[in-house]
Design goal:
Nucleotidyltransferase, domain 5, five-stranded mixed sheet, 2 domains, 12 strands, 9 helices, alpha/beta
């Protein structure tokens, strides 16, 4: 009879790799291990960092690498079948490379791979161990990512692993001059062009040029627009009118866009991730999201016509924090390779 196996989740980010190990019972063993990712130095450099993380995880769990039954890996880039399709924040040699196959060959352990938002969606599902329905994750950050987990815990990635690019769904909102904002993807009018840190910088610059905010403290701030935008969260937590206005707009547009996603997927549960999940004004932000959702969603996607008190779409904040993606990949590895 074979010995019970352990499963590792590796979340590769632009700066660090966050990793966890779970035991045969699915419970996390030991703390999260974090090492530098070195992604700009090429995938071989990152593989060396993964070796360090795995060794530390095994040491904490009191096991050897031979006891690992599978590895789940996520990357901050589009990929399909274990092959990176786009550079994103990675080094040049990642693109077109079978990362999954090479890591499997290097370690002699089965490996599966997806992108970081998909991994976080699975992590949020795994954390909610009593939730049996679908789960749609929408995560505002520098951009706007998403992931969808089907009932039963199965990740939906699409035919080419490219599904759930939720940030690039079009929304009918325009700038003050009637133009559609440019998106970093090259298109115009994407939801990410309204709901992201990049969008926050643009909108802040527009607002600070208005007479209404001529004497706002940020207009006297010598910092760059990027530095000023990073201060908005604290300002909003302290009730600053400009910061509140900007985040209220983002929340409303996010909810409006989610209404169309719900019309397509009907997930039942929508989880909002990203840094705002940790903010002190997150309850207000969630209300703005729901306002936008209610403005666009059909009544049946808000409440059951049979049980009017029952919400057909429930909103929750993400619970996994920085560990969600690594937990999701450890869970995925266990589901695939146990």
């Amino acid at each position: 009879m074979s010995e019970p196996k352990y499963f590792v989740g590796l979340d590769i980010g632009g700066s660090t790799v966050k990793s966890v190990i779970i035991g045969p019972d699915g419970e996390q063993v030991g703390p999260i291990v974090e090492v530098k990712s070195l992604v700009k130095d090429g995938y071989e450099a990152t593989f060396g960092q993964l070796d360090l993380a795995i060794a530390e995880l095994c040491g904490n769990a009191g096991i050897t690498v031979a006891d690992i039954g599978g590895i789940g890996l996520d990357v901050p880039a589009p990929s399909s079948g274990g092959v990176i399709w786009g550079k994103a924040n990675l080094g040049d040699d990642w693109v077109g490379t079978d990362i999954c196959g090479l890591l499997k060959q290097r370690l002699g352990i089965p490996v599966t791979m997806t992108n970081d938002c998909n991994a976080a969606a699975v992590g949020e599902y795994a954390i909610r161990n009593k939730h049996l329905g679908g789960l749609l994750l929408v995560a505002p950050g520098t951009g706007l990512g998403g992931g969808f987990v089907l009932p039963g815990g199965h990740l939906y990635e699409g035919a080419n692993g490219l599904a759930l690019e939720v940030g690039h769904v079009s929304v009918p909102f325009r700038e003050d001059d009637g133009s559609l904002p440019d998106c970093t993807c090259g298109l115009k009018g994407c939801m990410e062009a309204w709901v992201s840190l990049v969008a926050l910088r643009r909108r802040l610059g527009i607002e600070l040029r208005k007479q209404e905010w001529e004497f706002h403290d940020l207009n006297n701030d010598p910092g760059s627009i990027e530095e000023k935008a990073f201060k908005l969260r604290t300002l909003a937590e302290n009730g600053d009118a400009l910061a509140i206005q900007l985040f209220k707009q983002q929340g409303f547009i996010l909810g409006y866009g989610i209404a169309d996603l719900v019309r397509v997927f009907d997930p039942g549960l929508v989880v909002i991730g990203g840094g705002l999940a940790e903010s002190k004004f997150r309850d207000r932000f969630m209300e703005w999201v729901k306002e936008g959702f209610n403005d666009r969603a059909w009544p049946i996607y808000r409440h059951s016509p049979i049980e009017p008190e029952k919400a057909t779409t429930v909103f929750q904040w993400a619970e996994g924090g920085d560990a969600a993606a690594s937990i999701g990949m450890a869970y995925t590895a266990r589901e695939l390779f146990a």
